[in-house]
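## retry 2 of 3
previous attempt timed out at serialization; input unchanged, resubmitting
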Amino acid sequence: MTAPTRSEVQPVRRQTAQLIAVLIGVAVAWAGLFALNEVAWDTVLGGWMGLDLSSRVVDAVHFFLYDVSKILLLLVGMIFAIGLLRTTLRPERVRTFLEGKPLWLALGMAAVLGAVTPFCSCSSIPLFIGFVAAGVPLGVTFAFLIASPLVNEVAVVMLADMFGWQITVAYVAAGLGLAVAAGWVFSRMRLERWVEDFVFAAPVSRLGADGHRPTLSERVGAAREETTDIVGRVWRWVILGVALGAGIHGWVPTEFFATYAGPDNPLAVVVATVIGVPLYSSAAGVIPIAEALWAKGMATGTVMTFMMATVALSIPELVLLRRVLKVPLLGLFFGTVAAGIMAVGFLFNAVF
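## retry succeeded, writing output
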């Protein structure tokens, strides 16, 4: 077989360079849209339309528009980026790398990665989908999914300011510990059969299966096809899930809490979990509410339970994950995390 001539190589190189330039331009545009997302909706609703952003209805609309835009941007950007990476780094290599490491180390790495990515429970799902499709074991991906909304630098700073460093360190340790423990439990089970088939049958997974080394253009095409396929399956559920979250955004029944989740109720932790799960907020959004409840005399463990349940589990997350996970695994995930959160709450109440 003869080597390609210089006249044949140069157009290919030129096409590759142009494609790289386009990818860089698209990445810059994506980063700009993501960074300006909240400011843009502030300007549209508060500036151009002159609406009061502090009113409950406008705040709910703002939350809906901002969160839908953010999650769809993450979904498109993360799925494409991970898909493109997977065309170079095969799932078998990912699994081999992780299999060569102790399970606790893989789970710890996933939990730390989740802690340094400041995403809410729904925003973590695009990365979760990409990791599962890339061949990362489910237990490890669940550790990431749990840790990402629970622990981040914003939550740490706000917690330290409002509750002090002792409680903050305990919260961070509990959040990471819960992620690793739940990941370990899931790693003991064979859960792949409860993941929707389309996650594993993505176009990127088929690229290069015949031994052919794909070009950059083919890699980009496969990543784009995978992104279109996954986003096409999920976008309606993003809108539905966030709409449900926007309807209850910022609403906390403080009087109910004072009556039924006070320090005199031995089941206050359970009540806080049951109330916190349907709500939808980031750690930064729920911490001021938690401080107000704490100031009213609610036990520390009950307050931490409410925070964890609100940021780690939510109805919007349930709606989105259902497009990826089958009902048995979805129930197992929510049940395990809820039980872990309650265990943390009872422990905190006994210690603090």
